[in-house]
């Protein structure tokens, strides 16, 4: 039986995707260097699916380590590539770390997959669109100059994949441009596990309610939006995980129209920061302490997806509600409160050790 290689599979989106794949009957092997995660999600996945996934600790940016992995698993014919560094601010401070890690990983995996042929699903990002001129944003919308080295690694990686697929002829690839995945598995066995102070809105809210931070700062109240706060396309991480299953199946069943395809993955509607806070308070019954501060450098005003293509071609659309997503995020935070950070790995919250 062929194996699906999941890089970054102990991370946030990867671990949720492993669950959906295993529940759909796929045989997976995870590779992760634990730079931003621990082995704890392997236990969570086992509690959900009844089986612990195979795990290899290795660095995708190291060609020797990846070669050894591919030799050990000749059954790997498909790769879902999540592994990347993703902190936007850190990428501005340490661009070479980001280019080295994120770009070399893509190159190594494509090179090794190309030796046997197969399928490649890539985690891209709506960050490649910058601030779009027209909303909602379609896959045809222009790619803008990246606002950070992190964002640039996504743009460059997409180009590398497209060129390599065209040249090699034996790899089919899909890049999924994620908008803003949020929430956690409804079982609260796995979820988002940010290290240090979270950059992203939802973990900052849940940690503030938990008392780790005094206040949520809402960055900007003077945007050209209905309530002045910025707009994003938030959607449930379990829906995102399912999008990977259908993307993989499209490739496995030769249903793709071109060797390289790109799809937006989001809910297809824009939500303001204040709407997030208000909905969170309503569904959890918890009060969020917040204040308005100035805009965050590099932030865009508004973006949301046109998901027509994913609906038509993949038969996928986000099913879960914002309420479900926010409630699951809170249930996960409550779970973390009860459970001290477990598992091996550097990617641990400072405040839990
Ligand atoms: P995450 O940090 O939780 O998961 C990434 C995993 O990759 C981590 O477990 C980390 O240890 C691992 N990793 C990093 N570099 C590695 C390397 N060289 N070798 C092996 N493992 C390595 O992040 P996530 O939120 O799950 O994101 C997954 C992917 O989705 C990333 O590529 C990210 O850029 C992309 N993405 C995320 C979002 C989001 O909002 N979370 C949005 C758009 C795109
Ligand atoms: C959402 C909104 C903030 C925190 C980032 C990356 C991007 C992509 C997705 C991967 C914004 C506001 C946030 C806080 C706030 N990742 N906010 N107070 O901005 O869409 O993008 O994640 O590719 O590359 O840049 O998501 O969750 O950081 O912020 O007011 O403490 O919440 O200003 O409007 P964003 P986010």
Short key terms for the protein model shown above:
353 residues; alpha/beta; Rossmann fold; UDP-galactose 4-epimerase, domain 1; 2 domains; seven-stranded parallel β-sheet; two-stranded parallel ribbon; 13 strands; 40% helix; 17% strand; globular; binds nicotinamide-adenine-dinucleotide; binds UDP-4-deoxy-4-formamido-beta-L-arabinopyranose
Question: What is the CATH topology descriptor of the largest domain?
Answer: Rossmann fold
Unreliable parts: none
Number of helices: 11
Strand content: 15-25%
For the terminal residues, how far apart are their CA atoms?
41 Å
Integer-rounded radius of gyration: 19 Å
CATH homologous superfamily designation of the largest domain: NAD(P)-binding Rossmann-like Domain
Sheet bearing the most strands, described? 7 strands, parallel
Structural class: alpha/beta
């Amino acid at each position: 039986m062929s194996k699906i290689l999941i890089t970054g599979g102990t991370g946030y989106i990867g671990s949720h995707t492993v669950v959906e794949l295993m529940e759909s009957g796929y045989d997976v092997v995870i590779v992760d260097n634990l730079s931003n995660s621990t082995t704890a999600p392997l236990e969570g996945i086992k509690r959900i699916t009844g089986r612990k996934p195979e795990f290899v600790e290795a660095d995708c940016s190291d060609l020797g380590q990846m070669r050894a992995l591919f030799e050990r698993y000749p059954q790997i014919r498909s790769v879902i590539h999540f592994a990347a560094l993703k902190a936007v601010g850190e990428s501005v401070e340490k661009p070479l770390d980001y280019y080295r890690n994120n770009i070399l990983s893509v190159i190594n995996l494509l090179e090794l997959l190309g030796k046997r042929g197969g399928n490649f699903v890539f985690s891209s990002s709506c960050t490649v669109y910058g601030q779009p001129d027209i909303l909602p944003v379609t896959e045809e919308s222009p790619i803008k100059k990246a606002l950070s080295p992190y964002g640039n690694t996504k743009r460059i990686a997409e180009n590398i994949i497209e060129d390599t697929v065209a040249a090699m002829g034996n790899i089919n690839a899909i890049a999924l441009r994620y908008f803003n995945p949020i929430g956690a598995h409804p079982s609260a066995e796995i979820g988002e596990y940010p290290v240090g102070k979270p950059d992203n809105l939802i973990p900052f809210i849940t940690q503030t309610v938990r008392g780790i931070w005094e206040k949520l700062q809402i960055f900007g109240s003077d945007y050209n939006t209905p309530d002045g706060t910025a707009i994003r396309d938030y959607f449930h991480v379990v829906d995102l995980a399912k999008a990977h299953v259908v993307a993989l199946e499209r490739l496995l069943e030769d249903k793709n129209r071109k060797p390289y395809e790109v799809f937006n993955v989001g809910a297809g509607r824009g939500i303001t920061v204040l709407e997030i806070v208000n909905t969170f308070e309503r569904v959890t019954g918890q009060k969020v302490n917040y204040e308005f501060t100035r805009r965050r450098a590099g932030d865009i005003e508004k973006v949301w997806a046109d998901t027509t293509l994913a609906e038509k071609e993949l038969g996928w659309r986000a099913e879960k509600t914002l309420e479900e997503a926010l409630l699951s995020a809170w249930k996960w935070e409550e779970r973390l409160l009860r459970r001290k950070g477990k598992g091996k790995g550097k990617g641990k919250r400072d405040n839990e050790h």
